[in-house]
Amino acid sequence: MKKTGVHRFTASLPGDLLRSLDSMSREKGYRTRSLAIADMIRSGIIEHRQHHLDAEIAGSLTIVYDHHQRNLQSVLTSIQHDHHRLILSTLHVHLDHDNCLEVIVLRGKAAEIKQLAERIIAAKGVKHGKLAITTTGKDLPA
Ligand code: NI
Q1: 8 CA to centre of ligand 1 in angstroms
Q2: Residues 110 and 80 both lie in one domain
Q3: Number of domains in the chain
Q4: CA of residue 83 to ligand 1 center, whole Å
């Protein structure tokens, strides 16, 4: 198979599933069924690759915490300095008088990114944290 260009392939699906696919594609604003399917495949590949612990991934960790929590800010800062190679950028927003939201942009091996995210989320006083994993863009055709 050629590496570039568009290839056609035949797939068989139950009628109901195909109708659901078409209605979802329309609702999401895809111009064609193929574009919707290509995005779903990319998403599946990204989801799969994060289980390869050595694979390089990118991601963003969003956390919400109370900045009055004793020691929390210094704990978070220490963790981030310990892993500065994995952290590309941090965005801090003061949500209200008490609560802060931080988005930490990460890139590195899947295992290291997940471990760092778990450590930050587990810090006492972090109310909620969620890691969104994506691709670095390498090795994933558009
Ligand atoms: Ni703040």
Answers
A1: 51
A2: yes
A3: 2
A4: 21
